């Protein structure tokens, strides 16, 4: 069986910590067994590894998340790249084409699709493992995992089993689905032994390849990737699941939670405060997550979340926190980005009457990592090294730089830097804000072999 984690969402309901560059699954607010802060994707990948599934697993994600994924779980995890963000049907269709044409997976192989963000206990993955046998023994086209509800929720979709059929190897035949009912209707569904739909799908690869062919879509990954923008922007539930008759559901009787909103996420946080600040003793069920160096003080407020990041500040009652997506202007570019080589934090962004844009950034480069050898086509930069030591190359000229050095990089000048030790610098960028960058090389080996005019010994 091949396991694929879907990790393409943006997580707008967790603003201001989540943005287009750092989706909700990358927020380090959960704790692992060693009491270290980890993200959702780090937690679930650790569980997959622990249960022996990592060697046969992939992650489907967007272009904007590649560096973040490499930074958090390493560069060896195989990624299936979506050209842009659409929905779960296009993502799973592209995944099927990749497994078939690139990974050369057999059409008889069972594929299991999991969302990356639910919070589950370890034995959930025993249920995931069982999907392979369920597909093979029942002959079902699709097998789902249904969570036994603990209360009548209107936030989840429901899977209603067919009462006329007995359990078959741990699976029940599916009768129909109900999308996010009222709480009153949910009571009736639970009486019918309905399950929460947790977004886990499994099928033989050949089943989905047949659907692609039937709809006239390419089954080669490169071709489908080029035509990705033409695929319908629709969920896998609507496009495939609800059009399939031969479906079974495997019950899961254990802890499961969707961590898509601040109120559900904070329920699983071990600490009520992350970052600088004070929460007064008379605050009950109040959480503070502060990524800035400015202290935040919360006095006498209960059932509240305060989240602070370079992107903005959120103060919300926990019960109303899901409404955040209706109020935030997401046209603002991300003010914080985590890269494979380090981080970027925008400190100031100003536009002037002469059409110049001046952006001030704090950039951190991890020891042993480097920026690509690049050229900015529309702006100049001034770098001030504030911590650490690095190797700097500009138009082929090499020099060692350290704390206090100021570097001027004119427009259309090739440049890069490698951190000999953890490096921090303040970058002031001035010019047109079009973001046009030309990159020649990404690895330091290529840069040092091909681009230096002077050897290090003579520099």
TrEMBL record:
Species, as recorded: Paenibacillus protaetiae
Chain ranges of the Nucleotidyl transferase domain: 4-271
GO BP term (any one): polysaccharide metabolic process
GO molecular-function term, one example from the UniProt record: mannose-1-phosphate guanylyltransferase (GTP) activity
InterPro entries reported for this sequence: Man6P_isomerase-2_C (IPR001538), Mannose-6P_isomerase_type2 (IPR051161), NTP_transferase_dom (IPR005835), Nucleotide-diphossugar_trans (IPR029044), RmlC-like_jellyroll (IPR014710), RmlC_Cupin_sf (IPR011051)
Domain (Mannose-6-phosphate isomerase type II C-terminal): residue spans on this chain: 340-432
Lineage top rank: taxon: Bacteria
Name by which UniProt lists this protein: Cupin domain-containing protein
């Amino acid at each position: 069986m091949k396991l694929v984690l879907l990790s393409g969402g943006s997580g707008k309901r967790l603003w201001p910590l989540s943005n287009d560059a750092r989706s909700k699954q990358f927020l380090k607010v959960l704790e692992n067994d060693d009491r270290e802060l980890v993200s959702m994707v780090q937690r679930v990948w650790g569980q997959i590894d622990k249960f022996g599934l990592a060697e046969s697993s992939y992650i489907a994600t967007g272009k904007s998340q590649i560096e973040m994924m490499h930074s958090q779980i390493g560069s060896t995890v195989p990624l299936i790249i979506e050209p842009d963000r659409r929905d779960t049907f296009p993502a799973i269709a592209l995944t099927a084409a990749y497994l078939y044409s690139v990974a050369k997976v057999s059409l008889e192989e069972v594929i299991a699709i999991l969302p990356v963000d639910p919070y589950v206990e370890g034995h959930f993955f025993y249920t995931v493992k069982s999907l392979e046998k369920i597909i093979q023994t029942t002959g079902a086209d699709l097998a789902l995992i249904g969570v036994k509800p603990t209360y009548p929720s209107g936030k989840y979709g429901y899977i209603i089993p067919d009462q006329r059929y007995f359990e078959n190897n741990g699976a029940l035949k599916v009768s129909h689905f109900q999308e996010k009912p009222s709480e009153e209707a949910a009571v009736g569904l639970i009486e019918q032994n309905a399950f929460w739909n947790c977004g886990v799908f499994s099928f033989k690869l050949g089943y989905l390849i047949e659907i692609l062919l039937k709809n006239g879509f390419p089954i080669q990954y490169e071709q489908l990737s080029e035509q990705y923008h033409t695929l319908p922007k629709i969920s896998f539930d609507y496009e495939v699941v609800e059009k399939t008759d031969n479906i079974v559901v495997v019950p899961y009787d254990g802890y499961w939670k969707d961590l898509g909103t601040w109120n559900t996420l904070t329920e699983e946080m071990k600490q009520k405060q992350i970052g600088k600040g004070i929460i007064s003793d008379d605050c009950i069920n109040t959480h503070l997550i502060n990524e800035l160096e400015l202290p935040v003080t919360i006095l006498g407020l209960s059932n509240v979340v305060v989240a602070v990041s370079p992107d903005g500040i959120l103060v919300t009652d926990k019960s109303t926190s899901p409404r955040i997506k209706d109020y935030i202007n997401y046209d603002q570019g991300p003010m914080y980005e985590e890269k494979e080589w380090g981080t970027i934090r925008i400190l100031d962004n100003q536009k002037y009457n002469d059409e110049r844009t001046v952006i001030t950034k704090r950039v951190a480069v991890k020891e042993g990592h480097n920026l690509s050898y690049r050229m900015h086509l529309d702006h100049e930069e001034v770098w001030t090294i504030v911590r650490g030591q690095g190797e700097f190359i500009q138009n082929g000229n090499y020099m060692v730089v350290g704390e206090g050095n100021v570097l001027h990089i004119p427009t259309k000048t090739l440049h890069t830097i490698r951190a000999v030790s953890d490096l921090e610098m303040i970058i002031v960028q001035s010019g047109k804000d079009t973001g046009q960058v030309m990159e020649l090389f990404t690895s330091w080996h290529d840069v040092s072999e091909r681009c230096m005019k002077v050897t290090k010994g003579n520099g």
